[in-house]
Amino acid sequence: MRYFEVKKPRIEIVPMIDIMLFLLVFFIMMAMNMIPTSGLIGQLPASSTSQALPPTKVMIEIHEDGSLMVDRIVISLEELRAKLRDLAAGTGKTVVTIAGSATASLQQLTRVMDACRESGISQIGLATRNAD
């Protein structure tokens, strides 16, 4: 008569925990990639009239030593020009934000802005922090 015995159903918890942890890690990784690269520069210059900008397509970072970073990759000024030319050719409206260290030179900022303008990009923003 064992054939007719009814087994109690069980809920297996371990596979559900595995799936939930996988989903948690997945959403954390996706959220980290969705956050713009702002915040990588240690000390942005302060401004009392700063305002929030819409999300940008390209974030260019100027470090204290004059090195440039785009998408967390160190590039030279010539490589930056080529990358911006490609982006400007692909879409008509490319927005660039320049985040420079507070001690970065004004000459380096001018070179980056010139590279943007030579590439056909006219919408350039400067990242700052509130002076408060």
Write out the strand line-up for the largest beta sheet, numbering strands in chain order: 4-3-2-5-6
Q: At the third CATH level, what is the topology name of the largest domain?
A: Nucleotidyltransferase, domain 5
Largest sheet: 5 strands, mixed
- The number of helical runs is 3
Shape: elongated
Order of helices and strands: HEEEEHEHEE
Structural class: alpha/beta
Supply the CATH class of the largest domain: Alpha Beta
Describe, in plain words, how this protein is organized in 3D.
With about 130 residues, the chain is an alpha/beta fold. The chain has two domains: about 1-35, no CATH class; about 45-130, Nucleotidyltransferase, domain 5 (2-Layer Sandwich), CATH 3.30.420.270. Helix content is about 35%, strand content about 20%. The chain is built from three helices and seven strands. The strands form two sheets. Strands 4-3-2-5-6 form a five-stranded mixed β-sheet. Helix 2 packs parallel to helix 3. The longest helix has 21 residues, at about 15-35. The chain starts with 13 loop residues before the first helix and ends with a strand.
List keywords for this structure.
132 residues, alpha/beta, Nucleotidyltransferase, domain 5, 5-stranded mixed beta sheet, two-stranded parallel ribbon, 3 helices
